User: Fold this.
Amino acid sequence: MSLLDILLLPVFIVVILVTAFILRETVYKHHVGRKYILWGLGFKILGALFFCAIYAFYYGGMGDAFVYHESTVALSEAIEASPKLGLKLWAMEANTYDLRLSEMADKISYYSGENTYMVVRIATVLGFLCGNSFWVLNLLFATLSFAGLWLLYTVFVDVYPKAKDTMAIAVFFVPSVFFWGSGLLKDTVTMGCVGGFTYGVYHLFVKRDKIVLSLFLIWICSLLIDAIKGYILWAFFIPVVYWLYFHYREVARQNNLKIVFNLALFFTLAFGVYFFSDRVYDIGYYMLGKFVGMAMDFQSWHGYLSDAGQTGYTLGEIEFSIPGILSKFPAAVNVTLFRPYLTEVNNPVMLIAALEGTAFIVITLYVLYKVGLFRSLRIAFTTPFISFCLLYALFFAFAVGFATYNFGALVRYKIPCLPFYIGAVFMILEEGRLRSLEIRQVNNSQ
Assistant:
């Protein structure tokens, strides 16, 4: 920890907390979950500090976060040395060769891929605010991630305001999310963007308000997610369509426009199938090929790490065809959401992940017992917003569980789906309570 870190870190913490306090007392003065602005942000700050301490003292200054920091410093120095060339390098697509910039680019370790270089670009902008202090950069990344999570929380409690406490647990207090989503990593950026994207879709298509803000959030969050981890957008696609379809169908039913809605949908689908069937077919096989290629690369690399003594797992023999891949859906989802089991632990990081997975199992079983298995399933697939959260969580859990093959990497990769999964479970509990209350009120009125 440098002198710059020691001097700047407390100043930035105070400024961030004071800003959050002002927002709580002004913009969110009447929000039902206003107390969680400071609680949630406080946990994020602790997550960032703990993350820095682990990387600095436990990993001995090794790991992705330090490589991002070194790349950020190199890019910042390039901009300071020659603003014109440095800014051109900042804006260029990663791994683009330019003779005039080659010497600068060679110093940036993460210039080789657009997904890593996008994080370096963001860190470089923030770095000019804090002199590229490693600890403060992590703090600023955590704060931006919290902003996205807060937007996600406002959506959750707008749908279920009485469940504000359980929704806060789902969004802010899952250990993997506030730790691995609070450092100078790709996962921190995508976690915040997932929240912003959901907020934009909800307000643009469901609430139909805050149009400009919603469009901006959808645009910028989609841009960043696509550059860093594009498969997150594909995991969103079907759940969002499902959610909006059933939402608007319900709106049409309430306004006696169900027939018009169904006819419009039929002709829209017929038009799409007729004109875009070949394109959809090509895209489908292209994405399947990309997914299979990514999975095979990840499995090969993480399998190698497992042989070298790191924590790995396997899903057994896999036939890389659509039926073969889908046959691994339950096992892949299970490994993402509930493993490693306590019996599989062999290091401190795995222990935290195992405790979290055990808590997920207990909460899931409790809700299924409290609400009832079949009633829970009926609620899950007849309530559009819960369906969206659950489908996205399951699709995403399958993708990363199928591709990763290493618990150490999986604990980071899975965080964008965890608030949606545990949030959906708590929503089922709340929806069950509301429906039971409605039934009792009807019975009492008779």
Remarks:
- The mean pLDDT is 84.
- Residues 24 and 30 are 9 Å apart (CA to CA).
